[in-house]
Amino acid sequence: MKPFSPKMIRTLLWITAGSLLLLYLLFRFGPALMGFEKTPQQSRAYFQNLGLSPTFGTLETQGRKIHYVDTGGDSLPTVIFIHGSPGSWDAFQRYLGDSLLLSKFRMIAVDRLGYGQSDPQPESSLAIQAGSLLPLLGTVPDGVPVILVGHSYGGPVAYRMAMEQPECIDGLLILAGLADPAKEKRLWIQKPLRSKWLRWLLPPALDISNREIVPLKGELQQMVPLWPRIQACTTIIQGGRDMLVNKAHAEFARNMLHHVPLRYVYLPKANHFLPWTHYELVKNELLNLLQWCPSLSGH
Fold first, then answer.
1. 261, 294 Cβ separation under 8 angstroms
2. Is 195 strand, coil or helix?
């Protein structure tokens, strides 16, 4: 039998490593992927069963489409939900149909660039990700406050939006959000998996996720001098058993936001998937922002 050439051995090693990473990602992200990207028919049926008729809309920014779902009256404080990586708007579908929340808020959930029904091209720039969502602020009537809810990768997108338009963002609710560039470390195989030769090893959603996460350390570093711009009251929720986002990210954000009213909720036994595992707590913290945040109280 002809021996393998060094080139062939390297190729087999890459494929093996990529396969192991795929199994790792599926194990870690599997719970988060369950239920994502429901069909439009399923989503409409969900809201119809609740007696709701949300707006399924799109907006364009810099020639790229953003898909969103909008529920509630536009005279109420507006909440914009931003999913993680990977993800889609329906990570927050249950919140958009919650009767108590609907009595207090207008709620919008988005598909970020690269996901769901938004522009399919992956986008690794946090500035562009945030900028693509800023036009949603144009749908908010004058004088109506805005709260951003960001989970995981959606956390730095929310932070970046509050840096770009601090006068428009009144509250932040960050769930296991990334923040600290020094703590953003990736497996060595993730960078090669961005190449066109190896990307096929990953399912599409994980390919997009990998392509935006690999450059994240540099993106977070660019944000470091911008933290003083944020003016929003902030609640940060972090789990002690989060294997994807270390609690050091929450500590970093707390230190960077010492100049704003801030509440930190640490859950020693919680994992990364707070929007689903701690639904009632997240819901209550959203409602609590209306009570303790000066710019939101009275709404």
1. yes
2. coil
Architecture of the domain delimited by 6-292: 3-Layer(aba) Sandwich (3.40)
Do 131 and 65 touch, CB atoms closer than 8 A? no
Instruction: State the Cα–Cα distance between residues 19 and 210, nearest whole angstrom.
Output: 14
Report the C-alpha gap between 275 and 175 in whole angstroms: 7
Looking up tokens 């990977």 gives 86
Ramachandran region of residue 143, left (φ > 0), alpha (ψ -120 to 50) or beta? left
- pLDDT tens by residue, 28-59: 444 444 445 578 888 999 999 999 999 999 99
Residues paired with residue 147 on neighbouring β-strands, in sequence order: 79, 171
d(CA 228, CA 231): 8
Burial class (CB in 10 A: 0-12, 13-18, 19+), 49: exposed
Which residues are bridge partners to 71 per DSSP? 107
Of the candidates 13, 80, 89, the residue with the CA atom closest to the CA atom of residue 46: 89
Separation of alpha carbons 105 and 117, rounded Å? 24
What are the sequence ranges of the domains in the chain? 6-292
DSSP lists the bridge partners of residue 275 as none
Query: Per residue in 74-123, pLDDT tens?
Result: 999 999 999 999 999 999 999 999 999 999 999 999 999 999 999 999 99
Answer yes or no: are the C-beta atoms of 213 and 85 closer than 8 Å. Answer: yes
pTM: 0.87
Count of residues in the chain:
299
Q: What distance in Å separates the CA atoms of residue 68 and residue 283, rounded to the nearest whole number?
A: 20
- 227 vs 166: CA distance, rounded Å: 10
